[in-house]
Structures are given as structure tokens and as C-alpha cells.
Design a protein that fits this description.
Layout lengths: L6 H4 L8 E9 L2 E5 H7 L9 E9 L6 E7 L3 H5 L4 E6 L3 E5 L4 E11 L2 E12 L2
Antiparallel strand pairs: 1-2, 1-3, 3-6, 4-5, 4-7, 7-8
Length: 129
């Protein structure tokens, strides 16, 4: 089942602001490590059963605004498990995900102000076998 939503279908997009998102990887005795640093150490892939904590750290968009998130799982394993996801949801300032299965997944964060998506950022989350 294709459950993916696209921000362009939900809101007009005019990215006139930035948003910065941090992602910490936690698990298997590792201290919390920023995702890019972790991927450098482990040759570009995240192992299974790790926690990924993403937080919208900052934006230059003045309040009030909404923070929306999209978690998209990619690949045959995601399809087989019916875990493709890709819904865009308002979940507040931070989300917690888990590296459950192989694939080049990604997380997107959107800032919506006055009914317009004014900022977006994407974090690639490649998970190894």
C-alpha cells in the first residue's frame, strides 16, 4: 500500500526560511552520536536496532509555525513488511525512530506558517543488512 504523502500536495511550498535538524543515534553501548559522525565511523550504514532521535534545533522562521515530519522507508523489505510509511504528520519538535530494517530511508522536517511550507530539510538514514 502506497501511503506516501508529498508536502506539495498538502501546502504551497515557498522555502524562504531554513530549519536545522539534529539526529542522534543511540544503541548497542554507543554514546549518543550525531548521525553523520556515526555513518563516517561505520562506513555509511546504520546497523539494525538503533534509536534515531531527530529534533528540529532551530529555524529563522518567526513563531507561530507548525513542525511536520515525514518518515519514508524505502526498499523491498519495507514493501514486504508494509512499512513504507511516508505520511506527513505534526509531531512537535522531535521524533524517535528505530533502525529496524535494510534500506536507504529518509526523514524530512517541514516548517509550515500561515498555511505555507516555508522551510524543509531532509536527512538520509541508510540502514545496513
Amino acid at each position: 500500500v502506497d501511503t506516501e504523502q508529498f508536502i506539495e500536495d498538502l501546502y504551497p511550498v515557498n522555502c524562504s526560511y531554513q530549519c536545522k535538524v539534529s539526529c542522534l543515534v543511540i544503541g548497542d553501548g554507543w554514546r549518543p552520536t550525531p548521525l553523520p559522525e556515526f555513518l563516517k565511523i561505520l562506513k555509511r550504514y546504520l546497523p539494525h536496532n538503533f534509536e534515531i532521535r531527530c529534533k528540529m534545533e532551530s529555524t529563522n522562521c518567526p513563531q507561530p509555525y507548525k513542525i511536520l515530519w515525514k518518515v519514508k522507508n524505502v526498499g523491498p523489505e519495507a514493501e514486504r513488511r508494509n512499512q513504507v510509511r511516508g505520511q506527513i504528520e505534526e509531531k512537535g519538535n522531535s521524533i524517535v525512530e528505530h533502525s529496524n530494517f535494510f534500506g536507504n530511508h529518509y526523514i524530512e522536517c517541514y516548517i509550515v506558517k500561515n498555511g505555507v511550507c516555508v522551510a524543509r530539510t531532509r536527512i538520509d538514514v541508510p540502514i545496513g543488512r
